[in-house]
Amino acid sequence: MKNIALLFVLILAFSSCQNFDDPIPDGSFLETPTLSTRLVDGTSVELTWSSAQICTINCPSIVPASFYEVWTKSLTSSTNYKLVEIPAGQMSYLVEGLEPGVRQEFFVIAKRANVSNRTNRVMVVPNELPASQTILEKVSFDYITHPQVSPAGTKVIYTISEAGSSVQAQQVFVFDLNSKSEKLIFENGQYPSWSASGEKAVFVSGGQSTSAIKVYSVVSREVEEIVSDSFLSYFPVFGSGDTTLIYFLDSLDGGDQSVISYNLSPFATNPKAILRDVEDIENDYAPMLGMNYSIEEKSVAYGITVPKDIPIGFSYDVVGFALSSPTTLRNWVVSDWNDSNPSFSPSNSDLLAFVSDRSGANQVWIKNVTTQQLIQVTDFQESENINIGIASLSWSGMKLYVNILTGSGDSRFLSIDVSSLL
Fold first, then answer.
1. How far apart are CA 228 and CA 211, in angstroms?
2. Nearest to 330 by CA among 371, 298, 307, 358
3. To pair with 101 at 20 to 30 A between CA atoms, which of 62, 64, 168, 303?
């Protein structure tokens, strides 16, 4: 009799474990929110999550969570711990009392019945961020693409993607920051960058399957072709002493992509050489986002797609190599987030600026490659964003420059004095 009673109690206990106050209806799925952040001040961050569904046909039935758990991990901790539980209907939480300059990670778990779905993981580095200054602006969906400020901070070279244009070619302009005047220097070009002296700039000109690299002289205002290819060229930069060019070459055939060096000496017998092959990933994203050369390090850095054990299957890392040993890959910025569009500070080669979505949206970050310190520079919200496909970072002294898009279709080139963060 005692055994029967005990069995009855166990059955009741087991049954109670299978009954939930807020069950998920048959045929429905629990939401998987997306987490974003907003820096409120130097010690506070607001976490916001949403489950907006992008679907028009045969959309699954998504139900909200019964409650949410906010989890965190700081730089000084190796484990995650639960910060707080949030009731259903509340989709944000203000985290206060953070230490300025110390990176903090967060994620949220949506829970209902016996089902749990986790958001993306985000990272912030709270600080009093410096204000940005608009240097150049285009309106009505005329986009400033890949702008670069000259080393002296007196000129900007950039391309314009005109609104409604179905043509891939873009116009190349130089903007004088002193006279506020704009000059068209070439009708068809992309990916401009300056020489270390600021006396020359280089860009790519071409069509659907061919390209040429051209150089612009500031003094003569003339454009000269340096090298042409039957393939597509991207992101040319001047190498050591402005005597070489380094660029990415894509043959448009799977697996045939390389970083190229081109000797600018008129006496070079074989000026073109492959520095390093680049692995191709079969996806619809650009295989490379940005390239930069460090004069002091004599190294290049570029954003490249790398296979990862994450839902999308890959993310962008900032990698590169020293010109003296191109077969040895250096991992400048590697994470499960997208890190791209690198730019070394000319005045301090330890400082590498890059764009990352680790905070939940594309922002400008700086990494000290010696100390590994990470610094968050921007906190753009919904009305402003960085499009990594057309963005470019550049330095002049302690000022960092970046182009952004606005919700109204305007395009802005911004200057940010980062000296207070360093």
1. 6
2. 298
3. 303
Distance CA 354, CA 285 (A): 18
Q: Which parts of 251-298 are beta strand (E)?
A: 257-263, 272-277, 288-294
The partner residues of 272 in beta bridges, in order of sequence, read 262
Contact 281, 292 (CB under 8 A): no
N-term to C-term CA, the chain: 76
pLDDT digits (tens, 9 = 90+) for 148-186: 999 999 999 999 987 645 445 589 999 999 999 999 999
Q: Which helix (H) or strand (E) holds 4?
A: helix 2-18
Would you give the DSSP letter of residue 240? Answer: G
Q: Which residues contact 309 (CB under 8 A, 6 or more apart)?
A: none
CA dist 171 → 154, 203, 206, 405 (Å) = 20, 11, 12, 18
Facing residues of 206 across strands?
A: 211
Mean pLDDT, the chain, rounded, equals 89
373 to 321, 342, 356: CA distances (angstroms): 21, 16, 15
pTM, 2 dp: 0.91
**Distance between CA atoms of residues 78 and 83, nearest Å:** 15
